[in-house]
UniProtKB/TrEMBL annotation:
GO cellular component: outer membrane-bounded periplasmic space; plasma membrane
Domain Glycosyl transferase family: 50-222
Transmembrane domains' residue ranges: none
Full protein name: Penicillin-binding protein
Alphabetized InterPro entries for the sequence: Beta-lactam/transpept-like (IPR012338), Glyco_trans_51 (IPR001264), Glycosyltr_51/Transpeptidase (IPR050396), Lysozyme-like_dom_sf (IPR023346), PBP_transglycosylase (IPR036950), PCN-bd_Tpept (IPR001460)
Pfam families linked: Transgly, Transpeptidase
Length: 628
């Protein structure tokens, strides 16, 4: 018994010494309250600040004495009821979390105090690892040793994330309820206190039922913490909650998707490890604020009042800089970036790559195939019967020009089979797109890949055959000015220049009314003021357009996340309308843009675009001088 008591005393003494050493180290290791040294700053291509971690430009700081006591009670009751009694770590919550995590074999409960949450938000990543939890504890102790509880709580309330791009409790009150914080009801304050635990789950804009359920949990925690009576809590639950007009909310401006994409790329590059973060990161991006505004304004002007989504990219030819990006109709409602992560069927936007291959293999813009309803025998047991839009067929030989102009599917499949199906699959592979097994339907875009890959292909067309990886980051430095990363532009000639120039002129055909026959040119009525090359595409679930001139490439997709069919022309024309407005904004009617110049090996011919034969009243397309 005496040995057990002695052992217990030794263990207790060792524990006290370890605790003393832990907090002694924390006392000797100063950290700034707002984590200035470890901030990530993102800049646009004009040098303007678009994002700063831990304290957003769009946050509104509120002093603690201005925060209603009821709001403070709600936050402390639900997040950290012993906040004023501990020194950054709550042994009771930690013991409970350890037991739960041990039972599950993973970190499923954090047990973090308000101080730990602040430490994580200011200095650390969100990785669920034991090492990160230990670092969180160390930073929490440092904060407790150097700042008062009120300073910690004030900073926490001003930097906590509420979803929708909203940081800080004052901004959250205005965003959700259109009010100053001190004008909010008890029920609204309880709802605000509950949102940070899971913004995508408890935001009333996303689910009022979930928000109400979480509100009830907060109110009960306040009762348990003796900050409210049960009758007051019941009365608060019964109060109506009137939300602000969500349609007017643009908290992150229009750059939220771009910002998230850059942060994700920084993580992939290894720049969000703790050692690097402690030195600070200054990230200089290619985001063009004017182009981003033009893109976002066009989206806002043409998106219908439905759940239909949009994704869009603007790239700069020859450099492959990503100038602008939208990943959805509204960043505040969904932060999922469809431009980068959604894999969709690309439809007829694949055809220009097929026709580039055909040109490179010796076909010309005047090469013809018979367009009529056709069943192709692919192998002894495999047959394929594609159809044209609305089952309309010219019933005669048509040229490649006309096939592009009206998006004739029969011509595309015949070209694909004539060349050999592997060539298109190889063409996609050259862009890093590993497609499914080569099939006849691949010629019609029955393959799936993200919009950013389609933008890379079209930007290569726009760059006269040069290819590079689309890039958002130009330069990364630490706070001491040391260069951690600098992009080296290194475009390579992937496609033959002459055939690419021919293709660009061929992609004028979808606007050309002289391609009108039983089928209508696919972009008739959507031609912008300036000269552009473009191709639209569609499936039952997707509508796309991709086009360019020598100065910018614009690629857009629209559809529904749950693969609902696009039933109406109004749904299908959305990306075309947006695309046209973008080009007309950049190049107004009195400001013609640039176009390409013929190489010495090419010549311009005036031809009937349907037959491909010379015609003085025809349209201008480009041919090799050696083409018949």
């Amino acid at each position: 018994m005496k040995k057990l008591i002695t052992a217990g005393c030794v263990l207790t003494l060792c524990g006290l010494l370890a605790l003393l050493g832990f907090y002694g180290y924390a006392y000797l290791s100063y950290v700034p309250l707002l984590g200035q040294d470890s901030r990530i700053r993102l800049y646009n291509n004009q040098g303007g600040l678009i994002y700063e971690s831990t304290y957003q430009k769009n946050s509104e700081w509120i002093n603690l004495e201005e925060v209603p006591q009821t709001m403070i009670d709600a936050v402390i009751s639900i997040e950290d009821r012993r906040f004023y009694q501990h020194y950054g770590l709550d042994p009771i919550r930690i013991a409970k979390a350890v037991l739960v995590n041990a039972e599950n074999g993973d970190i499923v409960e954090g047990g973090s105090t308000i101080t730990q949450q602040l430490a994580r938000n200011l200095f650390l990543t969100l990785d669920q690892t034991w090492s990160r939890k230990f670092q969180e504890a160390v930073y929490a102790a440092k904060l407790e040793m150097h700042f008062s509880k009120d300073q910690i709580l004030e900073t926490y309330l001003n930097t906590i994330y509420y979803g929708h791009g909203v940081y800080g409790i004052q901004k959250a009150a205005a965003f959700f309820f259109g009010k100053e914080l001190d004008d909010c009801t008890l029920g609204e304050m309880a709802m605000l206190a509950g949102i940070p635990n899971g913004p995508s789950l408890f935001s009333p804009f996303i689910s009022m039922d979930n928000a109400r359920s979480r509100q009830a949990v907060v109110l009960q925690a306040m009762v348990d913490n003796e900050k409210l009576s049960q009758s007051e809590a019941d009365s608060a639950k019964a109060q109506p909650v009137l939300l602000a007009d969500f349609s007017t909310q643009k908290i992150m401006g229009s750059s939220g998707y771009y910002k998230d994409a850059v942060l994700a790329q920084l993580k992939e590059m290894g720049f969000l490890d703790q050692e690097t973060l402690e030195k600070g990161l200054n990230v200089y991006t290619y985001l063009d604020p004017e182009m981003q505004t033009i893109l976002q304004d066009a989206v806002d002007d043409h998106m219908p009042d439905t759940d239909q989504q949009i994704a869009g990219l603007i790239l700069e030819p020859f450099t492959f800089n990503v100038l602008a990006m939208v990943g959805g109709r509204d960043y505040t409602t969904s932060q999922y970036n469809r431009a980068l992560h959604s894999t969709r069927q690309v439809g007829s936007t694949i055809k220009p790559l097929l026709y580039y291959i055909a040109l490179q293999q010796g076909l010309s813009p005047s090469s013809t195939f018979l367009s009529t309803a056709t069943q192709f025998q692919i192998s002894q047991s495999v047959f394929y019967a594609p159809t044209n839009y609305r089952n309309v067929y010219p019933e005669k030989e048509i040229s490649m020009i006309n096939a592009i102009g009206v998006s004739d599917n029969i011509y595309a499949v015949k070209t694909h089979l004539f060349l050999g199906m592997d060539l298109l699959a190889d063409g996609l592979a050259a862009f890093g797109i590993e497609s499914e097994e080569a099939t006849a339907a691949m010629a019609l875009g029955a393959t799936h890949f993200p919009l950013i890959d389609l933008a890379k292909i079209y930007n290569t067309f726009a760059s006269e055959g040069l290819v590079d990886e689309p890039s958002m980051i130009r330069l990364v430095t630490d706070n001491a000015g040391n260069i951690l990363y600098q992009r080296q532009e290194n475009p390579k000639q992937l496609l033959h220049r002459d055939e690419t120039l021919m293709l660009s002129q061929l992609l004028r055909a979808p606007f050309d009314i002289k391609n009108l026959q039983v089928m209508t040119p696919s972009l008739l009525g959507y031609e912008p003021y300036t000269t552009t090359a473009a191709k639209s595409g569609s499936s039952d679930w997707d509508s796309l357009i991709a086009g360019y001139n020598p100065q910018m490439t614009v690629v857009l997709w629209s559809g529904y996340d749950e693969n609902e069919k696009l039933e109406t022309n109004e749904e299908r024309r959305v990306p075309k309308q947006i695309w046209k407005q973008i080009f007309n904004t950049v190049y107004p009617q009195d400001s013609p843009g640039p176009w390409y110049t013929l190489s010495p090996q090419l010549e311009e011919r005036r031809v009937d675009p349907i037959s491909g034969q010379p015609n003085p009243a025809g349209s201008l397309y480009w041919f090799r001088r050696t083409d018949p």
